[in-house]
Amino acid sequence: QQQVKQSPQSLIVQKGGISIINCAYENTAFDYFPWYQQFPGKGPALLIAIRPDVSEKKEGRFTISFNKSAKQFSLHIMDSQPGDSATYFCAASGTARQLTFGSGTQLTVLP
Amino acid sequence: DSGVTQTPKHLITATGQRVTLRCSPRSGDLSVYWYQQSLDQGLQFLIQYYNGEERAKGNILERFSAQQFPDLHSELNLSSLELGDSALYFCASSVEGYTQYFGPGTRLTVL
């Protein structure tokens, strides 16, 4: 009930390409869906987040698409750059506010 | 820099020992969350404190405990350490509960 499933586990994209990471959740009580970016040796950093009352949110090259009926959401990184190479985590939280994380996607952007 | 500080950065200890990890939240943030990141379990929520009081517990072992002090810094105490406790421990802070800012983490190695 509390799981967030994330795919793919790893992703290799050419510079300038689009990176797409998908997540699915089970708990319909979740009402906040952030994405975090983590570089080696660093803590997760909030990238972008969405509430279920909107279907899409865009910030710069990063877009979250949200499908409430399917209980799925995804991160799109447009014009991917080598500096985007990192591990990306989707997460979800409900009234208790603690984050339930997906398993992570290791993104490599080739120059 | 998220504004959340954690000490120490690295900790190496032996099985059976006890350690204390420290976290200072961002100025003004009343909530502190502790998370454990390991290769096999991923990022998992341990415990949350709000203004000195325990708010929520996740997958925290009985050997682990935490507290939040009047100045809002928090400590995570890990006792009777086992090899499997080796992990990265992150704290995060938040003012409103949704947006959580993560510290740089403490890498614990149990030998």
Characterization of this structure:
The complex is a heterodimer of chains A (111) and B (111). Chain A has 111 residues and is mainly β. In chain A, 0% of the residues lie in helices and 53% in strands. Chain A is built from no helices and 11 strands. In chain A, the strands form 2 sheets. In chain A, strands 2, 4, 5, 9, 10 and 11 form a 6-stranded mixed β-sheet that branches. In chain A, strands 1-3-8-7-6 form a 5-stranded antiparallel β-sheet, with no helix packed on it. In chain A, strand 7 (62-67) and strand 8 (72-77) form a beta hairpin. Chain A starts with a strand and ends with a strand. Chain B is an all-beta fold and 111 residues long. Chain B has strands spanning 5-7, 10-13, 19-24, 31-38, 42-50, 53-57, 64-68, 74-78, 87-94, 101-102, 106-110. In chain B, strands 2, 4, 5, 6, 9, 10 and 11 form a 7-stranded mixed β-sheet that branches. Chain B is globular and about 40 Å long. The termini of chain B are far apart. At the A-B interface, strand 5 and strand 10 of A face strand 4, strand 5, strand 9 and strand 10 of B.
